[in-house]
């Protein structure tokens, strides 16, 4: 439960999104196109979650 509380912090989600995005960019030559598409979709979901958390924070 403590892990979920940390994930509800927008700063933690931002750090995860940045690290994940950089990892996708760095590993692009070494991964297949389907894995790359999965990574981009997951990154988009993380960014959407950040926007959702920011909008409903108020």
List keywords for this structure.
elongated, 81% helix, 3 helices, mainly alpha, 58 residues
Q: What percentage of amino acids are in beta strands?
A: under 5%
Order of helices and strands: HHH
Number of DSSP E strands: 0
Give the integer mean of the pLDDT values: 81
Which blocks of ≥5 consecutive residues have pLDDT under 50?
none
Number of helices: 3
Oligomer: single chain
User: What's the main sheet like?
Assistant: none
Q: Level of helix content?
A: over 70%
> What radius of gyration results from the CA coordinates?
13 Å
In short:
This protein is mainly alpha-helical and about 60 residues long. Helix content is about 80%, strand content about 0%.
Description:
- The chain has 58 residues and is mainly α.
- 81% of the residues lie in helices and 0% in strands.
- The protein has helices spanning 2-7, 10-27, 33-55.
- The chain is elongated.
Summarize the topology.
Layout: H1 2-7, H2 10-27, H3 33-55
């Amino acid at each position: 439960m403590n892990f979920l509380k940390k994930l509800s912090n927008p700063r933690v989600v931002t750090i995860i999104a940045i690290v994940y995005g950089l990892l996708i960019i760095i590993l692009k030559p070494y991964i297949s196109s389907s894995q790359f598409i999965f990574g981009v979709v997951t990154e988009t979901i993380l960014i959407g979650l950040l926007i959702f958390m920011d909008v409903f924070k108020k």
